[in-house]
Each structure stands twice: as structure tokens, then as C-alpha cells.
Amino acid sequence: MPHSVRILDTEMVTHNVRRFRLERPQGYDFTPGQATEVAIDRDGWREEKRPFTFTGLTDDPQLEFTIKIYPEHEGVTDALGRIAAGEALLIDAPWGTIRYKGPGTFIAGGAGLTPFIAILRDLARRGEIAGNRLVFSNKTEADIIMRETWEAMDGLDTLFVVTDEPESPLSGGPVDRDFLERHVADFGQRFYVCGPDKMVADITSALKALGADPDGLVFEE
Ligand SMILES: Cc1cc2nc3c(=O)[nH]c(=O)nc-3n(C[C@H](O)[C@H](O)[C@H](O)COP(=O)(O)OP(=O)(O)OC[C@H]3O[C@@H](n4cnc5c(N)ncnc54)[C@H](O)[C@@H]3O)c2cc1C
Predict the structure, then answer these.
(1) How does 152-165 read in b/e, with b if 16+ C-beta sit within 10 Å?
(2) Domains in the chain, ordered, with CATH?
(3) Which of 1, 16, 103, 193 has the fewest beta carbons closer than 10 A?
């Protein structure tokens, strides 16, 4: 049974990524990294379900989503880009295979960061962030979600790369086999990968080719 949860407030995190704070149904629990099916609780929209990841802390009194808006799809995220606080969303049970299994390198592309937002925040809150690294690829610097948060996280090693802004000091990538060989010293560690499907497929196969243990690779299956 889906829960209808009211939107409490929203804010823009980048030019096209919007954060939503929502009511939390009593007893509704999730593990950092998990997602759920979300629909807008409005006539004509209730069957239009899309997956989004919880980005808040597990014991926050509210739920949080961080959602990239695609106006050109004329779909759910377009509508979420214009929805106001006070309206409601329908959320199903949490699901997903991305979860923290120990220190490693988190490799994210764009809005693929969202499961790592929840995981890294949770680790920081528990004082267990040290030994983890975030490699975050975007088209431009303006697309980087929560850059200041990651840079301020004591113990988290960060590497930001932008692929479509040659004048940026972060210009580099794409994150492919050559990039990984240049920027990763130890392929015996754990890797967490999330982003566009092709990016995840390319990076996981490059990591395996470079000697990473397939059992040490965490991605959405
Ligand atoms: C497990 C999981 C968790 C996710 N968590 C998040 C999250 O926390 N935050 C987040 O921002 N996203 C997340 N996503 C992605 C998110 O679900 C999609 O961005 C969303 O479903 C798009 O919905 P839409 O109705 O706007 O677009 P849809 O109309 O559903 O379009 C879906 C896909 O169709 C293609 N497409 C459709 N129209 C166009 C077009 N005009 N031009 C180019 N391509 C097009 C694109 O590939 C697009 O991704 C997650 C996805 C998964 C699988």
C-alpha cells in the first residue's frame, strides 16, 4: 500500500536539482542507499511511478529526496520541478541493492550521486567516513551536487571531474579505464558505482579488467 506524504518544503540544490522534505509515515524505515517508487498524488499522475532515492538520514523526522528535473521529458520530474509544498507524493516500500559494505571508492555520475548522499551522510554522522573516497563526474561545475558538503566532510577524500567545461580546473575524464588507472592506486579495495546505465556498465567492466574483485563492486542491479 503506498503512503501519501505531504511535501513540507523544497529548495534548489543546483540549477536543475531540487531537494524535497516530506512527512515521514510512522514506522517507515529505509537503509541508506535504498530507493522507492514515487508518484504525484494528484488525478492523472498516481500511476506514473518513478524510482527516487532517500537522501536524508535514517532517523530524521522527515524523509528527503534529491531529484534532477528534466523539463524536456514532460514527465514526472518536470511536474516535480513545478510542484509546491503542501501537495502530496505517493511512496511505496523501500528497495534497492546499493548499501554500505565497508570503506571504498564511491564513483558517481550526475544524479547517480543520490544513494551515496545517504550513505556518506550516515557515515559522517557515525564518525566512520575516514578511508572513503568520492569520485564525482559531471558535465560542468554548476552540476556538482552538494560540493561544499563533500569538501567539508573531514576524512572523505574527494575527486571532482567535469567533462564538458574545458576551462574548469576540474576538467578531465571521462571516467573510463584510462582515468581509473591514473587516479586509483589500489584496485583491491571496494568500489561503489552509480550513474547513467552505460557509465555504470563501462566502469564496472573497466574495474574488473583492472583487477577489482567482482564481489567488491556495489551497484544497482
Ligand atoms: C533505483 C533508482 C533510483 C533513482 N534515484 C534517483 C534520485 O534519487 N534522484 C534523481 O534525480 N533520479 C533518480 N533516479 C532516476 C529517475 O528515476 C529518473 O530521472 C526519472 O524516472 C525520470 O522521470 P521523468 O518522468 O522525468 O522522465 P521519463 O519520461 O520517465 O524518462 C525516463 C527516461 O527516458 C529517456 N527520455 C525520455 N524523454 C527524453 C528526452 N526528451 N530526451 C532524452 N531522454 C529522454 C531518458 O533516458 C530518461 O531517463 C533513480 C533511478 C533508479 C533506477
Answers:
(1) ebeebeebbbbbee
(2) 3-91 (2.40.30.10), 104-218 (3.40.50.80)
(3) 1
